[in-house]
């Protein structure tokens, strides 16, 4: 057994950390998000090989493993990075690599890997669970070929993407994946930001024509893999965010004085911090263990649900504790604390929240 | 035992309902629906204040001699219940519940004459200048200073968490007038009849929910009249304690909390459960709702016992008990709201939240307010004496009432 | 609104308290339960009018109201009294008073009121909920008249009763109540003690003949009233137990020293005590409010469920806190603390536990 | 990263399984099923100890030179897993995990020679004399005294929570040999080679669960040889800390916890939900089970990371983290057990719980143990350093591991 990152992973993490410390500190991020600063972060990520990393080698990527994705995503979470690595590469790019290499697909993958093209995964329809059983978007045979009709919500990076990967049901109710250029006729995009500042979009597909070569029929397994990637990467982001909250709150409690002594010396605060540390240790252990399981191809959907549920539940506990211990200042937009809370809450809401995954676990485990 | 309000109050209830059903403007109703904080949207709420004033109902808790309604506790509970049932914005508390009653108790005749009418009518809004960056839970550590100079004080320093200071035209505050002795000594309570004195600078603070509700106020040699002092110099701590008594002895919280639970129940009937079907029929939701309902019911029972004058009302820990119960129930309800809203709670919709913006929300009105309310309500366990401080106080009064 | 006990109730409580303080202190109770001391408690309760109190005046009782039952039961809880007031009088006696006064019924009621006869309510069949939908005991027409067949569990006072009140389903699945002498042929009793020392029994009814005059058909409302009485009385006992735990634990924390100071001066203990007080205040307020509702005949099954659920949940919180704060000594059989914990847990298990009642509340409230 | 045990260990696992499937007697198996405490039923468990000793497996954590197995951490985990899966009674810990390893580290050659063989073989059982009525969480406040007299000490005072003292024939204890200076100084660690010295009086204490597991031990001028002293006089506090290191660095707890969860799952398939149908299909049960499963899984992940030598293992707070996590998980599981057992958890069945009593329980075997286990497990957050003390310790080590 070995749950440490490899030397290569550690090196990559070190250089990514350095870059983000310099270029994506909280104030820089604030300016970037307010549109007050040009961000060259994406191209730096391309240059560092991080954008190509999650893609298979056969597609020009670096063949990144689950733990590679975790290694990077955890640092994204620490820095609240909202660059579209997740929607474009980890989700869309990796999923397209499972398509038959025909039509526009290979080109899309290549362009995603170079960072020139951005993809987005249009899947959510409102249930919040990610479960394919909730799909109602239709992929049907039109007069001049296949078309898609339906509406998707909260599509990460959906407003900036050049190619959209869409989940849909065929006329025989089979789960399919299909990809279309974002500027295809009949696509209507409503852009907004999620709670944590991530650019997202609601997207309507009004009988949009689809290139038959850009369809994967019988995509259950591919969708399951996609969702596992999404949940694993998001969980890693959440654990990264928790680490920062843990560290900054412990520091704050050690220096902030009230009643003539550091507030961390009050047992009520000290014990809450202890509980936060317990929560953090559990969440991070599950992240690393399940990343290792995924590396060996043995992470079940139950394992992924455990991870997603734990980071949702434990992340909320840590973030709410961090706000409470910071007091009034923790309630402001000016301090990072609240942004981490919102990041963790947003992650919890994506691809199945705590409650959903706990029930999934219980369902599987009770009958096992 | 008798569980009923005085039956004669049913006519009163009808009178209240008739007014509340007809008087509020659309903007006021919109403000009520978009209330995501203890502090309802300012302009429309002040408009509602003035309408209630015109009806004679702006100050249910004030005695008649000061223009109050003279209502009994039961009448006030009924009014509050009906007010909340209609999702109307609660009047802003600082004048009516805090500084007004304080002046009635401790103000000079001149201070009463000068300030009470504007509080009652809704002409004036008062902000509270208590906390400072280094004096939060430990309020007595405050250092913003006032130096006597002729008939004036000269104020230097900083206040923070001055709610709605950027909207207020009046301010009450605690200043340090003496640094010797215990830190609770040497504090003075001041009324500022303007918030635009030369040298005063107000900076709004954006909150977690994206709204500027709190402010910082900076004082740079601000000269204000000593006539605004309430009580003696250096005795402001006891004035503040008197004010706290009014703040905490105020209105019941359970009607507001009950209303949130009702909104959750209604929304759950329209929402879909993770595993299909209406959320309201989902067993897991039902269990969690059942627990919330039980907790809300117990809180109502506590408040009704207090209202009835049961011995529980005399428990010295009751203000702290009520504060912890109501703030933590609000937080639980806010979490349940985001849960019912599901992913519709995730869009950031600051414009749609503004009263009169005309911007359609992405989801339904319930989902629009769920997350801002959750975020804002994180403060409920921090402000007005953090819940850690309240639990300290409760732990000093552990005896239980036998009667 | 008025939620104080009346002057009469206060007087009765005062004299009952005095009697129990003298005769039923913890050590006396221990000896009584171990069979090492004769108990004259029951006859004292008769003499004080407490045994006759819950019965209607028309049956020779004192016409006790819901709040009368609460006033007494709360003190029973404070003293961990296991005398059979609940099974014999509050349940069996009051229910029999709703029967047609014919056959042996009036005599049974009279004897229950004088304490000469004890009754028990044989209802539980295993689900623990008290719900009539879980009944499977049959009341059927035999060759020589009605008979009962079925098995009941955890019947409070079932081993000491002279008359058994049985819930059963008729051949048309209607809910019935029937009463039989405990020595009737075909009754098999297995006596044991519940967790908190209450004498209980499992009872088998092997085609037991029933006097037709001792049957109430269409007993849904009577059963509902019976269950409401049971839950209200048990809730009052639980709140009485909580009060003692609260007081003794606060005292203990104020005097027990570790690390050179009272343990109650440690914030972790102080805040846990504060939470226990919050729990107590909620539970007691709900008890008094719902007693007042019941006095006016307006307590719904939802209200009763709220009360039962709250005392179960909050009682457990207080009792577990009390054990933890007492530390090792709280884990022993020698201190009352653990006995109160077991009393509260037993109460929670009778006629629907916390979980059941929370779901009942949610079911009713969600669709209301 | 690599999640697997060394593949070569599969053969080892098979060897373990083969023995555990065949060696235990019926009484041993019954004792395992009736284990409702950290301390399994004494006689049958000591019998199992002796069988394991005969197989050479009594001390998985001991080095080979002392008769241990010399197994790796992974082998020990596998052994523990398979042992728990079969509901076998865990060997009593005081000798094997506490005093044995301590003697290997700090005992004299004579003490090792005298005591280790009996610990290993199961001939001896050791009770721990640490706590006193006034020295619980604050152990250093202990006052039971030992006065040097020739080659002996004369002991006076009282110990409490001496687990199974009435079954033990040996005792290790802390005594006060000096009252000057800091209270941690002046404590001495002693081994008593008998528990029936003149002047020693052992009184069993009945616990919440009705079982006499703990005892009080009174010392009235008890004369014991100084040869039993471990370490120097007055330096027993550091000896106790060394022992604590062995106690806490011991076996993984997750196999035991996983086994409890498995028992709950199995019982739920046979139980009926409040609203009908199998409990295992009830959505509310499933959600709560899902949460328990997630917590158990995370705890397993923590222990496996530690086992693998991950940097987490070096966190100075890890012993406290593990103690809080494992004790509170045990308590959660015990509550779930009583919930699944339902009203069948309510009968008091002390006789049926005794190994070899032959008394049939009223319900099923799962329900029989649910409540006693719940009651006994309330102590898990009290003993071995209360969880309040553990949280104090954790709060002094809040840094998190980055690697």
From TrEMBL, chains B, D:
Ranges of residues in domain Acyl-CoA dehydrogenase/oxidase N-terminal: 9-123
GO function term, MF aspect, one: oxidoreductase activity, acting on the CH-CH group of donors
Superkingdom of the source species: Bacteria
Domain Acyl-CoA dehydrogenase/oxidase C-terminal: from-to ranges: 234-398
Cellular component, GO annotation: plasma membrane
Gene3D superfamilies: Acyl-CoA dehydrogenase/oxidase, N-terminal domain (1.10.540.10), Butyryl-CoA Dehydrogenase, subunit A, domain 2 (2.40.110.10), Butyryl-CoA Dehydrogenase, subunit A, domain 3 (1.20.140.10)
InterPro entries recorded: Acyl-CoA_Oxase/DH_mid-dom, Acyl-CoA_Oxase/DH_mid-dom_sf, AcylCo_DH-like_C, AcylCo_DH/oxidase_C, AcylCoA_DH/ox_N, AcylCoA_DH/ox_N_sf, AcylCoA_DH/oxidase_NM_dom_sf, Mycobact_Acyl-CoA_DH
Pfam families tied to this protein: Acyl-CoA_dh_1 (PF00441), Acyl-CoA_dh_M (PF02770), Acyl-CoA_dh_N (PF02771)
Keywords: FAD, Flavoprotein, Oxidoreductase
Region forming the signal peptide: none
Needed cofactors: FAD
Domain Acyl-CoA oxidase/dehydrogenase middle: 129-222
Family label: Belongs to the acyl-CoA dehydrogenase family.
PANTHER family: ACYL-COA DEHYDROGENASE (PTHR43292), ACYL-COA DEHYDROGENASE FADE29 (PTHR43292:SF3)
Name of the molecule in the record: Acyl-CoA dehydrogenase
Record organism: Sphingopyxis witflariensis
High-level lineage: Bacteria, Pseudomonadati, Pseudomonadota, Alphaproteobacteria, Sphingomonadales
């Amino acid at each position: 057994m070995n749950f440490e990152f490899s030397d290569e992973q550690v090196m990559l993490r070190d250089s990514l950390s350095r870059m983000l410390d310099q270029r994506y500190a909280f104030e820089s991020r604030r300016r970037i998000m307010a549109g007050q600063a040009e961000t060259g972060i994406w191209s730096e990520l391309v240059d560092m090989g991080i954008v190509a990393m999650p893609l298979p080698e056969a597609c020009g990527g670096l063949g990144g493993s689950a733990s590679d994705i975790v290694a990077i995503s955890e640092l994204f979470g620490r820095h609240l990075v909202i660059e579209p690595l997740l929607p474009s590469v980890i989700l869309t790019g990796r999923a397209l690599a499972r398509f038959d290499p025909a039509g526009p697909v290979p080109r899309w993958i290549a362009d995603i890997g170079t960072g020139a093209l951005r993809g987005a995964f249009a899947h959510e329809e409102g249930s919040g669970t990610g479960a394919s059983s909730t799909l109602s978007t239709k992929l049907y045979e039109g007069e001049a070929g296949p078309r898609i009709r339906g509406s998707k919500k909260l599509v990460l990076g959906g407003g900036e993407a050049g190619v959209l990967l869409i989940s849909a049901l065929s006329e025989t109710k089979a789960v399919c994946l299909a990809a279309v250029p974002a500027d295809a006729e009949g696509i209507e995009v409503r852009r907004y930001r999620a709670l944590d500042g991530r650019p997202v979009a609601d997207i309507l597909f009004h009988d949009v024509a689809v290139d038959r070569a850009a369809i994967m029929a019988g995509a259950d397994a591919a969708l399951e893999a996609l969702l596992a990637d999404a949940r694993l990467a998001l969980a890693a982001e959440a654990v990264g965010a928790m680490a920062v909250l843990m560290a900054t709150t412990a520091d704050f409690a050690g220096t902030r004085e009230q009643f003539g002594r550091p507030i961390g010396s009050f047992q009520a605060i000290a014990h809450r911090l202890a509980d936060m540390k317990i929560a953090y240790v559990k969440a991070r252990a599950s992240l690393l263990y399940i990343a290792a399981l995924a590396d060996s191809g043995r992470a079940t959907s139950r394992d992924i649900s455990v991870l997603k549920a734990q980071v949702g539940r434990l992340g909320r506990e840590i973030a709410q504790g961090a706000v409470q211990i910071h007091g009034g200042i923790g309630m402001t937009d000016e301090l990072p604390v609240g942004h981490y809370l919102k990041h963790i809450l947003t992650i919890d809401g994506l691809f199945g929240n705590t409650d959903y995954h706990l029930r999934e676990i219980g369902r599987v485990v009770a009958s096992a | 035992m008798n569980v009923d309000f005085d039956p004669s109050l049913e006519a009163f209830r009808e009178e209240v309902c008739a007014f509340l059903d007809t008087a509020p403007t659309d903007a006021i109703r919109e403000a009520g629906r978009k209330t995501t904080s203890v502090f309802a949207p300012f302009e429309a709420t002040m408009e509602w204040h003035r309408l209630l004033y015109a009806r004679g109902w702006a100050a249910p808790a004030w005695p008649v001699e000061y223009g109050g309604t003279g209502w009994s506790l039961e009448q006030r509970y009924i009014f509050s219940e009906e007010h909340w049932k209609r999702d109307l914005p609660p009047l802003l508390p600082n004048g009516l519940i805090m500084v007004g009653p304080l002046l009635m108790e401790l103000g000079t005749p001149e201070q009463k004459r000068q300030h009470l009418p504007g509080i009652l009518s809704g002409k004036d809004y008062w902000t509270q200048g208590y906390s400072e960056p280094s004096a939060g839970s430990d309020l007595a550590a405050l250092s913003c200073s006032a130096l006597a100079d002729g008939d004036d004080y000269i104020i230097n320093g900083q206040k923070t968490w001055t709610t709605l200071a950027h909207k207020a035209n009046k301010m009450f505050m605690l200043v340090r007038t003496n640094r010797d002795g215990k830190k609770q000594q040497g504090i003075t309570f001041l009324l500022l009849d303007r918030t635009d004195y030369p040298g005063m600078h107000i900076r709004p603070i954006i909150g977690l929910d994206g709204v500027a509700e709190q402010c910082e106020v900076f004082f740079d040699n601000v000269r204000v009249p000593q006539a605004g002092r309430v009580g003696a110099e250096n005795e402001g701590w006891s004035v503040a304690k008197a004010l706290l008594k009014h703040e905490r002895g105020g209105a019941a919280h359970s009607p507001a909390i009950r209303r949130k639970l009702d909104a959750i129940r209604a929304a759950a009937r329209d929402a879909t459960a993770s595993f299909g079907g209406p959320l309201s029929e989902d067993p897991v939701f039902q269990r969690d709702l059942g627990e919330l309902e039980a907790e809300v019911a117990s809180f109502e029972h506590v408040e009704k016992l207090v209202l009835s004058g049961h011995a529980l009302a005399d428990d010295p820990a009751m203000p702290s008990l009520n504060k912890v119960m109501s703030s933590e129930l609000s937080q639980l309800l806010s979490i349940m709201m985001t849960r019912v809203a599901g992913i519709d709670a995730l869009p950031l919709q600051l414009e749609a939240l503004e009263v009169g913006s005309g911007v359609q929300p992405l989801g339904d009105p319930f989902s629009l307010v769920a997350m801002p309310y959750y975020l804002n309500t994180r403060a409920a366990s921090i402000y007005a004496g953090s819940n850690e401080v309240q639990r300290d106080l409760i732990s000093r009064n552990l005896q239980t009432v036998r009667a």
